[in-house]
Amino acid sequence: MDAMNMFCSVIFIFFIGFAWIFGYLIRMMYPKKISVFTAPGFSGTVTLPKAGDYAVTITLPHNSGIASNLPGASFYSAQFSISTTGRQQDIALQRTGKWGAYSCNKDFSGNNSHIIGLFHCHQTPANYDIICTNPEVIHDTYKVEIINYISLGKQMMKTIPGWILVFIAIGLLIIPQVS
Q1: C-beta of residue 60 within 8 angstroms of C-beta of residue 142
Q2: What pLDDT is attached to residue 73?
Q3: 56, 146, 162, 171: which could form a disulfide with 21 (CB 3.0–4.6 Å)?
Q4: Inter-residue contact 148 to 52 (CB < 8 Å)
Q5: CA-based end-to-end distance of the chain
Q6: Beta-carbon neighbour count of residue 86 at 10 Å?
Q7: Across 36-40, 103-107, 125-129, 141-145, which has the greatest mean pLDDT?
Q8: Peptide bond just before 135 cis, omega within 30 deg
Q9: Smallest Cα–Cα separation from 54: which of 22, 21, 26, 96?
Q10: Right CATH number for 32-149 from 3.90.1570, 1.10.3470, 2.40.128, 2.60.120?
Q11: What is the 3-state secondary structure (H, E, C) of the chain?
């Protein structure tokens, strides 16, 4: 294989690895929204497409002020009841963090999204009733969203094939230089 073909192969492998890593990092920072609930009740029925972990998040508009991002803001005390439609089987919402604050994501329009709690869906597809039992603690301009949740560790594990491709490309670029 001549030098130009080797260089083109290295660039292609590096690009595929980088695209793999970048794709999973974007998916981690901007998770897929399943459903959005707005004021006044912040409640509704949602169809979850597959079994797995989901998160209840509260999304704040970008102009909501600095105090809304501090732990202990009123929306962290929002309580949610989750049950399977028809069976009335309750599902536990696991609160995240001591103060209710777990992570804060920003979307492309500058809105902040705070994870309030996590729950696990066992059956697919199924309808779930998600009810906010104290909607008065959430400001009317905020939104409650249900997102597909994947833990940071699982997301980082999915980037390993991309890292392997990047290191192979770097190795293929360096090895001919050394020998």
Answers
A1: yes
A2: 66
A3: 162
A4: yes
A5: 15
A6: 9
A7: 141-145
A8: no
A9: 96
A10: 2.60.120
A11: CCHHHHHHHHHHHHHHHHHHHHHHHHHHHCCCEEEEECCCCCCEEEEECCCEEEEEEEEECCCCCHHHHCCCCHHHHCCEEEEECCCCCEECCEECCCCCCCCEEECCCCCEEEEEEEEEECCCCEEEEEEECCHHHCCCCCEEEEEECCCHHHHHHHCHHHHHHHHHHHHHHHHHHHC
pLDDT in tens, 118-147: 888 887 777 888 888 888 888 888 888 888
Domain ranges of the chain: 1-31+151-179, 32-149
Q: What is the mean pLDDT of the chain?
A: 81
CA 34 to CA 20: how far, in whole Å? 23
Amino acid at 103: S
The one-letter amino acid code at 114 reads H
For 6, 81, 146, the CA distances from 34, given in Å and listed in that order, are 44, 17, 5
For residue 119, the one-letter residue type is: F
What is the residue whose two structure tokens read 């992570």?
A: 103
